[in-house]
Amino acid sequence: MVKKTQHTFRKKWGQNFLTDTNLLRKIVKTIDPKPDDSVLEIGPGEGALTEIILPLVNHLAAIEIDPKLIEYLNNREDLRDCHFIHKDVLLQELSELPIPAPIKIIGNIPYNITSPILFWLIEQRSNWNEAYFMVQKEMADRLTGEVGTKAYGRLTVMIGAFLEVETCFSIPPDVFIPKPKVKSAIIKMEKRHDPFVLDENFNRFEKIVASAFSRRRKMLRNTLSGFGISEELKEKIDFTRRPETLTISEFSELAK
Ligand code: SAM
């Protein structure tokens, strides 16, 4: 794809645009949009993904923070059936979108706000059913990290308590303008039918997980001493263990 505008790339908004048509088609094939789908795209940029998905679905909305890009997108005759919203996605209520629920959420998202976007997804999980994001490869590895590995950490547990995450494929840096320093990956996310944590236990769960992983070389008996964990539970979950050896289910037990 040739750069279509005289756009000045803004680093603060994570602007690395996709330029490889084959890759864009591969991403869309993975997302597999169906005519009845209601799709929300986060960060359409100049519309590289938007223009392929729009003819395939009945409802498409896209949220973009950059006013210059919104002006450009709104002027594109071929994209007039897409609802463009000029907003910070983190301030968007999914229930207030101009497209029907449930929603499929997609996006080559700004890497600097990947974690906040993931927590935003969890908070609003009653309004969407599937999500496909391009993220840093390192982030994909963390989100899908197996218990006991280096990649397994706070984010694996926090996100994994609510969502099932799968890496679809990796992407090299040279398909973007400007070229990022890191590798990327497409991930697919679905909601767990039975999340590991109930809403009422969420705050305690978040604190326990953060505290346990704040010093991952330390045993739980040191990092979790202030949480009033029962002796019975300590018998069940050996407190000489280190945080990366605990499954998500075991962390959820501690938060009950
Ligand atoms: N989808 C385009 C592509 O693949 O070429 C652009 C992807 S670029 C990595 C991320 C896009 O998200 C940029 O267009 C950027 O302006 C936009 N963006 C950054 N922060 C945002 C936010 N908080 N809310 C909505 N859009 C945002």
Strand content: 15-25%
Q: What is the CATH C level class of the largest domain, in words?
A: Alpha Beta
Query: What would the CATH topology of the largest domain be?
Result: Rossmann fold
Distinct helical segment count? 10
Percent helix: 25-40%
Q: Please give the CATH architecture of the largest domain.
A: 3-Layer(aba) Sandwich
Bound molecules: S-adenosylmethionine
Descriptive report:
By secondary structure, this protein is of the alpha/beta class. It folds into 2 domains: 181 residues, Rossmann fold (3-Layer(aba) Sandwich), CATH 3.40.50.150; 56 residues, Helicase, Ruva Protein, domain 3 (Orthogonal Bundle), CATH 1.10.8.100. It contains 10 helices and 9 strands. The strands form 2 sheets. Strands 4-3-2-5-6-9-7 form a 7-stranded mixed β-sheet. A two-stranded antiparallel sheet has the order 1-8. β5, α4 and β6 form a beta-alpha-beta unit. The chain is elongated, with a radius of gyration of 20 Å. The model has no long low-confidence stretch (mean pLDDT 95). It binds S-adenosylmethionine. S-adenosylmethionine (SAM) binds next to β1 and β3. The site of S-adenosylmethionine has 23 residues, from β1 and β3.
